Amino acid sequence: MIDYFGGTVATAKVLNISKSTVSLWGEVIPWKYALLIEKLTKKNLMLEADLYQNKTIRTLKNNSL
């Protein structure tokens, strides 16, 4: 995903967050950023709800469609 935007700094700028926040992400991007990325990329990059255990995430995603 970071490559999509052109690196950590570019990703941080697009999301209006700090570079260190992006650098702290593990294999799974925090859900609130994943939802934002999905919206900003017009679903070219999509949140994978199955990666998140919380049913609220799936509900939010389904309601936004």
From TrEMBL:
GO MF, any single term: DNA binding
Top-level taxon of the source organism: Bacteria
Cited SUPFAM superfamilies: lambda repressor-like DNA-binding domains (SSF47413)
Pfam families attached to this UniProt entry: P22_Cro
Protein name: Conserved hypothetical phage protein
